[in-house]
Amino acid sequence: MFKILKNRNFILPFAFILGLSFPGLAQYTKSLTIPALALVMTISLSSISTSNMLEWKQLSKPLILGILLNYALLGSLILLLTFILIQEKSLRIGMILVAASPPGVSIMPFSAILSGNMIFSLFATFGAYLAALIIAPAITISLAGAETFPFSGLALNLLYLIILPIVFSRFMRLEKISYFLESGRGTITNWGLFVVIFTVIGINQASFFTDFDNLLRIALIAFLTTFPLFYLLKRIFRSLNIKRSDAITRCCWEPSKIQALQRHWLSVFLMMPLLQYPGLSSVQFTQYI
Question: What is the pTM of this model?
Fold first, then answer.
């Protein structure tokens, strides 16, 4: 009975179903989403030794690849498909914000779960966030028609979800704390993601039953930027003899790009009700195709 409460294949779909069934409860967990993500990041980063983090010679390659994967590949593809498939203004704005956003920090916990390259995950995510300080406002202002860009939201996300978890993860590597966490690391990560998924699904529950046309359009874009792209990248990585752990981490980028919208643009950047823009409120659906 209790084993199922540690199984992520139960926990994450259960969060989705519970969010659809009891959307009112999500109002009480909104304030917990950023702390939950920060905790998940801290737990994931605790598996990386400080000496590996300080190997600056490894820094440049993942920094550059993180920017290329997030913007040159995924961002460009999302923008192209958005202008081809979506005509409604508010929905198009929502997808432009997806393209402009930095990657979701879920790259880190999912890389850990799938035995990916955690050093690459960390530096690539950090690089994409730094690039977002320039690229995100450029895309948002030029394509979404925004007049200003709130840099404070992006900076706070960088602080709360990357910098502070790095610092606190060093304390979690202390022998006594590390021993305690070893058996519960995966469970804590899964339930942290549960809080995030449940909250976003619950807050946006209405769009799942009233906006089918928009959901299908976003689902198609999500499908095209996830499964075919995953297959293509997998073939390319194999032909280039890229290590499996590195390939896993790079393939985590596609779904995390969609996840970034809920956490960053909705929770911090926009500071508005999620259902104000259909393009924003329905985007969570794309993670569960």
Answer: 0.75
